[in-house]
Amino acid sequence: MERKTLAIVGCGKLASIIADALNANLLPEYQLIATYSRSIEKAQNIANKVNNESQKDSPCKACNSLEELLASEANYIIEAASPDSMRTLALPALKNGSSIVTLSIGAFADEEFYEEVKRTALANNARVHLVSGAIGGFDVMRTAALMGNCTATFDTEKGPNSLKRYSVYDESLQTEKRKVFEGNAKEAIALFPNSVNVSVAASLASVGPEKMKVSVTSTPGYIGDNHRIEVKNEQVHAVIDVYSSTAQIAGWSVVNTLRNIVSPIVF
Ligand SMILES: NC(=O)C1=CN([C@@H]2O[C@H](COP(=O)(O)OP(=O)(O)OC[C@H]3O[C@@H](n4cnc5c(N)ncnc54)[C@H](OP(=O)(O)O)[C@@H]3O)[C@@H](O)[C@H]2O)C=CC1
Ligand SMILES: O=C([O-])CC(=O)C(=O)O
């Protein structure tokens, strides 16, 4: 069997889950051929993981630059870095004919970029797969939106420590529960670039980034994230509520998407 080739951009916690899944033979139809990260050590760590186990005979290369990774012309590039990185790699990857499986869906809050990505994918016979990540239910969101007159809200609860890197943080959040953000999905991803990709994903599946009403609440001592999405039209009221104590669900959702891509039965 000719295996499909994979490359990973962004070799952190979620990329590690994908390498472990390859080693656990959960992705037998795929071979990892290239990795790239901001630091070569991280790229080498992920390559070593598979080279020491499942790919002793077909080693994966740790690349020194994004250009080197793109030149590998992998069938699928997994983006597990950041929305900025997704913006940099999407068009050149698609022009090479590589499809993309992305976690940093926040990059698509920019409508012009989203449209250009769609056109480029179509022109090059490639596809962009938006993974379910830390949420799910894109099917019901898309269906409800298709029926017309749809509204949607996205409410996230997080612990204050996960907000420390953002401007909304102050020490009072350690003791006081507070709504730290209210706005739309476009504004949310601009303020929290690595933490609300899911809100942009849900908006693209329903009412779009500008119409999706988003709130972020900080709760003292809260472990993990809870994302509650409500989609309504005249006939449907759908609630998708996902709690996860870690972000690992997002890495596993990439594994699930890759399995779906090659499956005779598609969910
Ligand atoms: N859709 C969803 O549900 C979710 C999406 N995400 C997205 O997935 C991304 C990865 O998450 P996670 O693995 O937990 O994060 P980590 O911080 O553990 O890993 C991200 C890795 O990407 C690398 N990186 C960052 N920027 C660049 C860049 N411009 N070019 C190349 N490499 C880069 C970092 O490099 P280095 O360490 O080498 O410096 C780091 O190793 C998040 O940033 C977020 O955008 C995350 C959770 C859920
Ligand atoms: O892990 C989560 O709960 C969601 C997240 O970081 C993101 O959407 O970027």
Automatic annotation (TrEMBL):
Q: In which pathway does it act?
A: Cofactor biosynthesis; NAD(+) biosynthesis; iminoaspartate from L-aspartate (dehydrogenase route): step 1/1
Which GO terms fall under biological process for this protein? NAD+ biosynthetic process
Q: Which residues bind NAD(+)?
A: 134, 197
Catalysis performed (reactions): L-aspartate + NADP(+) + H2O = oxaloacetate + NH4(+) + NADPH + H(+); L-aspartate + NAD(+) + H2O = oxaloacetate + NH4(+) + NADH + H(+)
Q: Which InterPro entries match?
A: Asp/hSer_DH_NAD-bd, Asp_DH, Asp_DH_prok, NAD(P)-bd_dom_sf
Please report the stretch or stretches of sequence annotated as the Aspartate/homoserine dehydrogenase NAD-binding domain: 10-130
All copies of domain Aspartate dehydrogenase, residue ranges: 175-246
Record keywords, A-Z:
NAD, NADP, Oxidoreductase, Pyridine nucleotide biosynthesis
| EC number, UniProt record | 1.4.1.21
Active site location: 227
Query: Is Nucleus one of the keywords UniProt gives this record?
Result: no
GO MF terms here are: aspartate dehydrogenase [NAD(P)+] activity; NAD binding; NADP binding; oxidoreductase activity, acting on the CH-NH2 group of donors, NAD or NADP as acceptor
Per the record, a Pfam family? NAD_binding_3
Family matches, as HAMAP family: NadX
Could you share any additional remarks the record makes about this protein? The iminoaspartate product is unstable in aqueous solution and can decompose to oxaloacetate and ammonia.
Its family remark reads: Belongs to the L-aspartate dehydrogenase family.
Protein role: Specifically catalyzes the NAD or NADP-dependent dehydrogenation of L-aspartate to iminoaspartate.
Name of the protein in its database record: L-aspartate dehydrogenase
